[in-house]
Fold:
Amino acid sequence: MKRDKYKRELGKVILDGKDINLEQIRAGYAWHYKKFMREQSAVDSESYAQAEDEARESRLGLWRDEKPEPPWDFRHQSRATKTTTSIHVR
Structure:
């Protein structure tokens, strides 16, 4: 559908009539990235949010962890670590 600021392709994956994005969220293997809800159709936004809530309540996939770390937090932490560890003292 589009490219993000890192030039990654973003879109909705449909296979044999199934929304694979929704299936991943439903199984607890993906987050519904709510920051971009306005760019999704109302139907997708609602179904993704509901699927994530149900996966959380059922403790499926990543929701088995007590405190699953959102990928955006992990990336932010990873970038901060790279910045601090890339300083070399001689």
Observations:
- The longest helix spans residues 42-58.
- Residues 2-85 form a domain with the OB fold (Dihydrolipoamide Acetyltransferase, E2P) fold (CATH 2.40.50.90).
- The chain has one domain: 2-85.
- The chain is about 45% helix and 10% strand.
